[in-house]
Amino acid sequence: MLKDRYNRIHDYLRLSITDNCNFRCSYCMPDEKMSFLKQKLLMSPEEIFDISKIFVQLGVNKIRLTGGEPLVRKDFGEIISKLSLLPIKIGITTNGLLIDNYLEELKKADISSINISLDTLNDQKFKTITQRNHFAKVWENIQRCMQENIHVKLNMVVIKGVNDDEIIDFVNLTKDLPIHIRLIEFMPFDQNNWNKEKVLSNKIALQKISEQFSLFKLKDDKNDTDKKFGIFGHSGTISFISTLSDSFCSTCNRMRITADGKMKNCLFGKDELDLISAFRKGENIIPIIKKSIFLKHQKLGGQFDDYKNIQPHNLENRSMIKIGG
Ligand code: SAM
Ligand code: SF4
């Protein structure tokens, strides 16, 4: 069992399988031309499986594949089919563009729920945010998932002045669709043009929604990062991820491996330990994993407390695309 100095048990691994992406979301990656890791530096499907197996031995019961965009990997089908042999719940976070290529594999791996990122329902705005013209295809894939009985959780990063005017439109989707909408506060990462004025706190979003809809609280699981609500008369549900305004660090059970094989114990932490080099040399990586968990800070990577006082240039971290969200 992986327990840190604050008695938090870590049983959830978020695994970035690539830092490459077919979108260019401004809040996730730097403006400059990005260079991505060469294929041979990425963990192979066998390495992903073997490393995951070690985490499972240490008590991990859930692994989420993320990136970059996990579905741009040509061997995604092989990765998922190998992981489905482990006694874990598998999660996937994707921008949705390539889902139709993998529906068969997802079904075979018993994936019953998928997190898809969508920040706008307007195709022009979609193009501005992602720098790609793929709204229609993503929306079609969202519908395909629902037809295949895969529960869709839509991740919407709310940015003031960009898409906060669409919150109600997103909630309206839940009227007839059995979809779950997750409103995520805009977080600061390396060179993502973050400033506190662009953050719409979940409290304000909740107020806005409550003025138009009749909400009731749903039960959250003990390590959930989101606070869930139902809406009377609606098929779908909504939730709020208030990483900045009301952090959930006290119940954190998450750890991360970046696409270049570094272990990160916190989304906002600057400490990284090189797991993949040791693994490739045939060394025992368990002491490295335990050390990483031991080093975990109590809150927000030890880098800030009140988000209103964050000076983005003082934060030491990667961009989100290089961490794995
Ligand atoms: N490409 C996949 C996708 O977009 O879903 C997976 C990787 S992406 C980094 C994972 C999640 O992080 C997405 O839901 C994305 O919206 C979210 N994300 C990226 N940058 C963020 C930021 N600055 N603040 C809040 N969420 C962010
Ligand atoms: Fe790509 Fe996802 Fe980042 Fe957008 S949020 S650039 S889709 S990794």
Index terms:
TIM Barrel; alpha/beta; binds iron/sulfur cluster; single chain; 12-stranded mixed beta sheet; binds S-adenosylmethionine; 10 helices; 325 residues
Can you tell me about this structure?
The protein is α/β, with parallel strands linked by helices and 325 residues long. It has a single domain (2-323), classed as TIM Barrel (Alpha-Beta Barrel), CATH 3.20.20.70. It is 27% helix and 18% strand. It is built from ten helices and twelve strands. It has helices at 45-57, 76-83, 99-108, 123-130, 135-147, 167-173, 202-210, 275-280, 286-294, 320-323; strands at 12-16, 62-66, 89-94, 113-117, 151-158, 180-185, 215-217, 227-231, 237-241, 254-257, 262-264, 272-274. Strands 7-8-9-6-5-4-3-2-1-10-11-12 form a twelve-stranded mixed sheet. Strand 10 and strand 11 form a beta hairpin. The radius of gyration is 19 Å and the shape is globular. The chain starts with 11 loop residues before the first strand and ends with a helix.
Summary?
This protein is an alpha/beta fold and 325 residues long. It is built from 10 helices and 12 strands. The chain has one domain (2-323): TIM Barrel.
Task: Draw up the topology in text.
Elements lengths: L11 E5 L28 H13 L4 E5 L9 H8 L5 E6 L4 H10 L4 E5 L5 H8 L4 H13 L3 E8 L8 H7 L6 E6 L16 H9 L4 E3 L9 E5 L5 E5 L12 E4 L4 E3 L7 E3 H6 L5 H9 L25 H4 L2
Parallel strand pairs: 1-2, 1-10, 2-3, 3-4, 4-5, 5-6, 6-9
Antiparallel strand pairs: 7-8, 8-9, 10-11, 11-12
Helix pairs in contact: 1-2, 2-3
